[in-house]
Known about the structure:
Low-confidence stretches of chain B: 1-33
Oligomer: heterodimer
Strand content of chain B: 25-35%
CATH superfamily of the largest domain in chain B: von Willebrand factor, type A domain
Protein name (chain A): Secreted protein
Radius of gyration of chain B: 32 Å
Number of strands of chain B: 16
Keywords (chain A): Signal
Protein name (chain B): Ca-activated chloride channel family protein
Order of helices and strands of chain B: HEHEHEHHEHEHEHEEEEEEEEEEH
Shape of chain B: elongated
CATH architecture of the largest domain in chain A: Sandwich
Mean pLDDT of chain A: 80
Strand content of chain A: 15-25%
Structural class of chain B: alpha/beta
Organism (chain A): Actinacidiphila yanglinensis
Number of domains of chain A: 2
CATH class of the largest domain in chain B: Alpha Beta
Distance between the termini of chain B: 27 Å
CATH class of the largest domain in chain A: Mainly Beta
CATH topology of the largest domain in chain A: Jelly Rolls
InterPro entries (chain B): CLCR, VWF_A, vWFA_dom_sf
CATH architecture of the largest domain in chain B: 3-Layer(aba) Sandwich
Largest sheet of chain B: 6 strands, mixed
Amino acid sequence: xxxxxxxxxxxxxxxxxxxxxxxxxxxxxxxxxxxxxxxxxxxxxxxxxxxxxxxxxxxxxxxxxxxxxxxxxxxxxxxxxxxxxxxxxxxxxxxxxxxxxxxxxxxxxxxxxxxxxxxxxxxxxxxxxxxxxxxxxxxxxxxxxxxxxxxxxxxxxxxxxxxxxxxxxxxxxxxxxxxxxxxxxxxxxxxxxxxxxxxxxxxxxxxxxxxxxxxxxxxxxxxxxxxxxxxxxxxxxxxxxxxxxxxxxxxxxxxxxxxxxxxxxxxxxxxxxxxxxx
Amino acid sequence: xxxxxxxxxxxxxxxxxxxxxxxxxxxxxxxxxxxxxxxxxxxxxxxxxxxxxxxxxxxxxxxxxxxxxxxxxxxxxxxxxxxxxxxxxxxxxxxxxxxxxxxxxxxxxxxxxxxxxxxxxxxxxxxxxxxxxxxxxxxxxxxxxxxxxxxxxxxxxxxxxxxxxxxxxxxxxxxxxxxxxxxxxxxxxxxxxxxxxxxxxxxxxxxxxxxxxxxxxxxxxxxxxxxxxxxxxxxxxxxxxxxxxxxxxxxxxxxxxxxxxxxxxxxxxxxxxxxxxxxxxxxxxxxxxxxxxxxxxxxxxxxxxxxxxxxxxxxxxxxxxxxxxxxxxxxxxxxxxxxxxxxxxxxxxxxxxxxxxxxxxxxxxxxxxxxxxxxxxxxxxxxxxxxxxxxxxxxxxxxxxxxxxxxxxxxxxxxxxxxx
Lengths: 278, 420
């Protein structure tokens, strides 16, 4: 009976562990974990300028809203750091001041390039949008693939490092070229290195021929992952089940009774536990 | 035991990851620009007769430009060498030949004396022709030299009325190897001026702005002058060869070159064992090109075997197309292993209408990095930790089997009297 009760307790514990695990497993891909690289590197105020090419791209941290006053037709460049496991989303908004009159629709695009200046596809999001002549602003979104810690040199999978954002007009009436516009860009990210973790690591893809780009607390890579819970919980479960299995297979331990001769008139059976039947 | 092993593996891997991630990037920032470099800016102002037209907020274009210059001279950051050049300021006559040479340096590029610069601007009267091309050439020689950025800001209200196409002139200046950007501001939104000024800007990677209000002019010129203080690495000019054999050997750094339409250029890089070569090639279209284009970057061994390649193609309006490759060279067992020479091929598939000049070639920017990076993935993902129900089931099954075996062993020992 005691064994049975023990097994019951163990099962309960295991169930509790499992429930907590499922909970965290569900939270794996959500934004529940705080982003370790949410602030800019060495910049105290959000940048108000944009670069004009890869070389002069303005460095901006994740979660920081960078702005720039520019002219329609300019190519605006920013760069930001992204670390392993992050799902990065780049938001860009182009606002047209009311003082300028526009003569027709214009289409705008946001492009994201990795640290090797390879164009990165957007998994989803409005990468290209057309603004009607009367529109006051146009919103662009690009959701990148998950940043990986390692990839084959032949692939162009996104690796941790610098990412360039380019905002520009693709098509506009020639009469609107050079008109003032205002652009806003922000890169945000969520997720941990849990479900998407891959073997290996690569030194951050940041060129030495440019400004220093790094998350505010360095390229540690995130150490947190729900994998800790899965593995730890699994180990705990194994210990508990091993204990239970051991008790089950060994059977009850008889109390030592060398002082009294065995009673042959009574059947030999385990003692009832105290409090049984209350 | 399982857990202990897992934990040990995890901490060991964590340590290695921390070493790989934390230590390496610190060494990768030696190529930053010289902080003492002095940026040079020259404002090129059109003082042709048409600048007297009163259509900027009810004022004449000239007075709007003068006010903007006053504000800009006041707000120029210390350390920026600012000069002013005029075009069409002196010759009021009708002789085209003389009028088209009329450009003069009003204030030399150098340490700024704000009062002198302002009083020089105050004397200007709208006078002559609009020789943009000669003015740009002269301005480019004004700001030559130094290791800072070079920027020309051209403010004009009309297209070049002289022979030379200023757009070609701008491209020639850019091709001379001077790291020079020309920003243009048009005071009149007419078609010819717009296309010519945006062409000049495009040829040098600058910006074109249509100005309709005085405040807008001031803000924009200030912004452009401020931009000259942005630190950026100046590329080193190099010239790629037609084959790998005669190609220049490049070290870590930023390089600039020119290649004409559909041309291939070769460069060589020595990669030591344990290093990773990272190369990016950016080809800019500084003139009007056909709608479809592409860039190819290949890493090839000396024997012609392709190691790695990246190509990028696109369509529509763009300023540049770029491609990048990584090549990690495995660590060698002994230290004497020589560096491997990797040939880099940069090709482009830009094309242009027949009316477009093909020389000088398109600007190519080549960024070479050599970093220490692991060439093989480690065996474990995320410190060797696992996830998922299969892992859980396996651990549980292992636990219960181990428990049952030890339990049976214990019972057997009890029953056979080996244990009391």
